């Protein structure tokens, strides 16, 4: 068991709903918390504020039973996904990265990150990952050690991210980059810093904003040879989200994951809150050309993982203030992005800098090695596969979810 966690203050958080204008080959819509996908978000609360122009917001959501404030817990919630369950669901049990490094890029500071991560890992019998051992590094957006000021919502996002990497890849090293703000410039600078760190093979970005052009921001995410993942957002089919729509990034959608008595032991369907859509700006992936996306440009998503806060949400140690923490249950596509980054790290196959091969092309060469998610929807749309699951590629879940590491 992990060490006890202090009781804490209640928190209030607001969060992300993405807005994006879609052009040729797509439709246009604005993200709206009262829109047709509001049912998907019941009993959960976004933790980050809506993004201003030029900014992103984190895509984490916390379970808030019956719409009430989340209870303060001294132990993991019984309904929260554990590391053993996550690895079983995605057939990762027994896999190892050999000590590869996953980087996480978020905004603002989180003073209790190391101690909260220690509690999480001890609770579930995972090997310690500490700053002292070199397993954990916490850096600013330039790679330095002077860290930015605390922000509650983004700190809760970081808690979900580091716990998700720990659950999916217990032997991975972790680098957390804390940007000075939620601007794309600061977050992107953080991605660049992560890419310079020796040993980093995957970089997770659990945030998004309006659809944007790689001509403006692509330099921050273009790292062939490193798997860069990004969350699709939590507003259902309402428009594309950047950086998930970048041609350089693996766009990660969300599923509902439920224990079952079938051969796999789990069932998966589209989480109705997951984002999906078509970029108005960025080029379609050549690897996706034969999959009938229906998008004239970049289609979102490529793959998916557990995201439904209530059905597949992860048990997490999270902060409620700059000095206090507790247990809770978190989801959103913020859960899925670090899971997929971890699977890339486990596979050791993250593209090639020498041949300028991006990691997002890899699953398209191995679709049969993924769990195909063929049921569920995340809204209404003019082209069926943009919002409704089907056999093969679809917008909400891409090609599917991990079935071991062979799809990556």
Automatic annotation (TrEMBL):
PROSITE patterns found in the cross-reference section: SEDOLISIN
Signal peptide: 1-31
Keyword Signal in annotation: yes
UniProt-listed InterPro entries: Peptidase_S8/S53_dom_sf, Sedolisin_dom, Tripeptidyl-peptidase_I
Keywords per UniProt: Signal
Domain Peptidase S53: 80-408
SUPFAM superfamilies: Subtilisin-like
Protein name: Peptidase S53 domain-containing protein
Organism annotation: Sinomonas terricola
